């Protein structure tokens, strides 16, 4: 067995590796020389979300957390989903996000954040598409590099993930991606290359899937040949959780750190070295990379000061709202129905399952638990005050989900210094035990019981280091039924729960289930009476969450929504997906909105002034209602401040400036990714090659709902004075003048595409090669400038195995989206 370094006497004399004045390479070499083989191998695997400390040599442990949208440990600022960040098309904003997430990580003792996720959106149903930056490699690379720079400006390491071609969740651990080298080089590699070369990411995480017959974690072509040798990556490679499948092949292929435990990088690796299957030089190289990264980042030499107050900084909350504001995409705005005018509107109907719930993010390891969240209803109510009457009607529940009981029917009594008082909502008591014993670590008022913590927990004291969480919660108070009759109560949860009404056990499902299930119980209630209510929740392991709903006697949700829409001047439908449809481990089943298309179609027929706000991480089908609604707003998963951001955009306090980071297709046949999807032989054949996203749609002249780069504004922009000047034979200076011709301040994302008129191998019609987001006051003009080098005109020649620029004519095109191209200039490269 491996001997832990912590059992050996601790070093007291200062060694060269402890001298921070020396170069990192000198310090690392000295450290390696003092380590036994067993101690070296001990550093190549983790313990849950930590690496191992070595007290003899003074090697500190490194604590990790998931984090593409915030720190997934205890409470933290919940930023909008990464796909929402991508819709900002603003690298400077991504850098600021990374910096704040790094600060919050440091404040929790976290020195290694497992993000960003930068896989390309190939499949429209991809379960983790919402975690990454869209369908274009250039956009994804620019944003990833900026985020990493911000994150690593703290004493925190970034992990660019998941390398490579992790583009679907279905059978992700066994699927064999069959993809050409050209597609890898042009579509799936560039964002990772930018992450390590421009962003200087200190680590890269491998994917679960197989790539051309070899698992990513033991793929010599990916890890040694491309990442380390060609790109000059000096950091280290970490596995995704339990993604390692072998010892010798993995060690020799370039994987440096196995997580979460040393199943293969423990005794098996020690024996492989002793047997000569893996050289000690290979082990030393892994140690060199790991400790070089940690020393460079400054996390080897200093302890972190934990400061829980950091996440409560107003600047962090403001940034979360700003990100959502800058990322919201105005897809459609017939007759300029938006922005809404508070002075002329008297009544608004807020309809849909997401109207009163704050859908901060989707499911899986990216879920962040904030200290608060703002629903669309709360955001709009705060903005309009008493000026506009708001009518709320859900209309329907999202498929496979339930509607929570509204806080207006729940209350609890608090005994204070001035006597007892009643508050809306239930009293929640949170315990570290699994049986409600002991003193609660947190007591608070919860407005309704609708929580999904995924692998996180509602409080840091309840979150286990390896996500195997064990805790319990009790909610208590009174419930006030609006009608008399039989009520069906519903509890949805993955673990154990009980429901009591007036001390009568209504639902009893305390046993561990392992996944989200719905349980019902029926009881007769009187509208003239209040009842004691108690919910007990028991968390036994892993994924956590609980939701309480009911069915009111005689209630028809659709009829209520229709009545509200008829009565209102404006109807806003909040539709979308949830953590049950988008998240780690599963892809979506269909492009359709789950159980909401009928609602939108019905309500838009009743009220022509209908606006749809979508909260999703991917595109959805709009075929049955697209032409019937007046406006469509893509709000993504907008984070903890989403309700405020949505309200500000709807009422014009913020001018929308987001642009789509991927195409909104009309049907499955418009994406080649559906061909051969879920094949019995577990092979995903990327036969479309480089033609992914808008590249495929443009090549095949396919109509779509909204193109890559699309996004409307409350103002207009003109493009003029487009200039292309030759610097060298393969380098050009490009400039264009943008003017705000409208009446309000706005931001425009100016996009530059390159078109090769003739090439030996097929090339896309247009490819994004530059972009810039500019802010303009009414009548203000700015000149946007770029320098294009040979990379903007080159492609990877599969037969020659290299990047080439072919002589000939190229068009340089600028515009507002991939299909709204305003100006063109032609050049000839000799």
TrEMBL record:
Signal peptide: none
A GO molecular function held by the record: beta-glucosidase activity
GO biological process, one term: carbohydrate metabolic process
Keywords: Hydrolase
Domain PA14: 421-566
Pfam family, one: PA14
SMART domains, A to Z: Fn3_like (SM01217), PA14 (SM00758)
Protein name per Swiss-Prot or TrEMBL: Beta-D-glucoside glucohydrolase
Organism: Paraglaciecola arctica BSs20135
Gene name tied to this protein: bglI
